[in-house]
Amino acid sequence: MLFAHDTEVSLASTAALINTLPGASKSGDDELSTPAQLVQFLDRNEFTGSRTGATEELDDVRALRGRLRELWTHDEDGVVALVNELLQEAHALPQLVKHDHWDWHLHATESSAPVAHRLQVETAMAVIDVVRAKELDRLHECAADDCTAVVVDLSRNRSKRYCDVGNCGNRMHVAAYRARLRGEKVSERI
Ligand SMILES: [Zn+2]
Ligand SMILES: [Zn+2]
What we know:
Helix content is 47%, strand content 9%. The chain is mainly alpha-helical. The strands form 2 sheets. The protein has a two-stranded antiparallel sheet. The chain has a two-stranded antiparallel ribbon with strand order 3-4. It is globular and about 60 Å long. The protein binds zinc ion (ZN) (2 copies). One zinc ion (ZN) is lined by residues 142, 144, 147, 149, 162-163, 165-166, 168.
């Protein structure tokens, strides 16, 4: 394992959150448009703690996605500045906790804090590990030129170039194969 378990879980669920943005999602639509979609997302990612189900909650999480996406695209200084901003804004106070089936892991907000605050702090805490380990290059955009999804590469040899959302690896592979059949020179490494 590259990072602590809770860090890897957080990175994956943040990537899934960012990949609900139109252009990254499987459908091409914004997949976080309704309160029901937010509930689905939170349940799927086993996100505990209080929820209001209010429109404001949805709006806050929707707005957060673009900011969190910057953690995947900024350089190290930019990521550090954003991580600190996200933590400060939500008055993060790290505590070790154990609940449900999760062993000791970090929470840095009360379980009653707004969903968006908890999401931003959880993500920031995870990215702290990535920055400290000098592994930021593992957070990158999908290598398919028509895809804006983000990728968390936890592979041993840093070989994950494509997202899991749009089957991009396969798609690019087929496109390169067809291009070769047409006699075009394909320089891209798949
Ligand atoms: Zn927890
Ligand atoms: Zn992709």
